[in-house]
UniProtKB/TrEMBL annotation:
GO terms for molecular function: calcium-dependent phospholipid binding. The lineage of its organism: Eukaryota, Metazoa, Spiralia, Lophotrochozoa, Mollusca. It holds the Pfam family C2. It comes from Plakobranchus ocellatus. This is C2 domain-containing protein. GO terms for biological process: cellular response to calcium ion. It comes from the Eukaryota. PROSITE patterns: C2. Residues 1-81 form the C2 domain. GO terms for cellular component: plasma membrane.
Length: 81
């Protein structure tokens, strides 16, 4: 059986507020594990001034139910780098 595409949408609630005077500006980065190493797969847009982002950009992944496919989602505050 061949793999299928799945769309992964991301949203977060109650993120830590890392900014002193404003709210966090989050962005989500998806990493996939390939040959024992994490590789960046894609990024969402950054959303300004929110602790509860509902990202509109999604990730399209090939999915095979017979293969383990580790994913790592990391959320960054874009203006704290």
């Amino acid at each position: 059986m061949s793999g299928r595409q799945v769309e992964v949408l991301v949203r977060c609630t109650d993120l830590a507020d890392l900014d002193v005077f404003t709210k966090t500006d989050p962005m989500c980065v998806l990493f996939v594990k390939q040959f024992g190493q994490w590789k960046e797969f894609g990024r969402t847009e950054a959303i300004r001034q929110t602790l509860n982002p509902n990202f509109t950009e999604s990730f399209l992944l090939e999915y095979d139910p017979y293969i383990q496919q580790p994913l790592l989602f990391a959320v960054y505050d874009i203006d704290s780098r």
